[in-house]
Amino acid sequence: MSKNSRKIVKRKIVSSIQFLDEDLWSTITQNENIYLSYSYLSALEDTIKEEIDFYYSISFDDQNNPVLAASFQVVHFSDKKKRKNSFHDTYCLIKNKILSFNILVCGNVFSDGENGFLFTDSVSKKEAIIELSIITEEIKAISKKNKKKLPVVLFKEFWAKEDTYTKSFKKQSFREFMIDVNMVLPIHESWNNLDDYLFSLKTKYRTRAKSVYKKSKELVFRNLNKEEIEEYNSEIKTLFNNVVDNATFSLVALNSMAFVKFKEALNEQFIFKAAFLEDKMVGFCTSFFHNNILEANYVGIDYELNHDKSIYQRLLYEYVETALELNAKELQLGRTSELIKSAIGAVPENMKLYAKHRSTIPNLLLKPAFHFISPSKFELRQPFKTEYAL
To answer: Where in the chain do CATH 3.40.630.30 domains reside?
Structure first.
């Protein structure tokens, strides 16, 4: 039990953030997590509510104080991953029965990290997980009345090194899964600008970085405001869809108009940097800045020019430059492209999630169902000189 713990006695569950009082929600979240901020959730919901369902909850103690806030999204998963080898009949059965289902996600399917819930000091972690389990069952019941079954509940995603929730989730019959790493670049205290960062690289990797800048020298980068993001929406949509269509896996794609909403709601905390070649947008990268952390989010790329202009690799260095400009303490580059990200100095941080199927036997078969998020193998690069090694 936590110090001054009070029993949670009731909860309010709604299908839109607009049905909750902003001040009440903020009393719990305290602007601690940008992805749980009222403004971010409002912007996200406004742009994609036609494609996925949203649920939000606030729990109250026996003194009627709000003590826990949680955000949920309902998405549909269908396994469409191409494979080189065929699997046996058992796998085919699992695929047909298990690998096409609705998922109730506590967290944010559009970002990495612990973005699903927050609670006050009067609630222990054990109590929070018990309460969240109760909430998921109530949401499942609400959804069932609306003719949508939610057989799988997923809590995403947690930093494995902290390992603070495992015991509590397992007591609620959740299974733990290791997922693809989050590539993180801690910002060295001696880096005041890009030249300082480049100086810290070994000759091989500094030469590689200079080659990227040379190939991309014709690109002009601009930070876009809300009006400019809206003006270039057609180009942004095309570049964004290029990346989405090229992705191995995605639960749901974000609408490009969300970038307009994010900029409007979050202002300088949301950064949209676009790359132009002779006034034509050929790439972009977005990020969120909060708690002295720059979190890379989405990119858009003109793949026809990508090789000759090193667009993607230049976007990664743009993230580094932005982190330095903002005096960030670390740059979180997310999953995928681990090898390239490690070449600029990012190191892997293990992540995990917790999932549960409504039935006992399918619950035992969740592991093959979640093959798509299993950690990828890659050769970690060591680009820094010894004195700057992480």
So the answer is: 8-178+351-373, 188-328
328 phi/psi in degrees, rounded to 5: -70, 150
Question: What is the Cα–Cα distance from 94 to 369, expressed in whole angstroms?
Answer: 8
Amino acid code (one letter) for 252: V
Backbone angles phi, psi at 194, to 5 degrees: -65, -35
Q: Is the pTM of this model over 0.85?
A: yes
pLDDT in tens, 254-276: 888 999 999 999 999 999 999 99
CA distance linking residue 10 with residue 300, whole number of Å: 44
Q: Which two tokens stand for residue 253?
A: 């794609």
| pLDDT tens-digit map of 302-349 | 999 999 999 999 999 999 999 999 999 999 999 888 999 999 999 999
CATH superfamily of 188-328: Gcn5-related N-acetyltransferase (GNAT) (3.40.630.30)
Do the Cβ atoms of 53 and 15 come closer than 8 Å?
Answer: yes
Closest by Cα among 107, 178, 183 to 351: 178
Polymer length in residues for the chain: 390
- May I ask the CATH class of domain 8-178+351-373? alpha beta
Distances (CA, A) of 136 to 8, 109, 225, 252: 15, 17, 38, 21
Count the Cβ atoms, other than its own, within 10 Å of residue 111: 20
Helix (H, G, I), strand (E, B), or coil: what is residue 157?
strand
Amino acid identity at 121: D
List residues bridging with 153 in a β-sheet.
104, 356
CB 107 within 8 A of CB 157: yes
Give me the half-sphere count of Cα atoms (radius 13 Å) on the Cβ side of residue 290.
Answer: 18
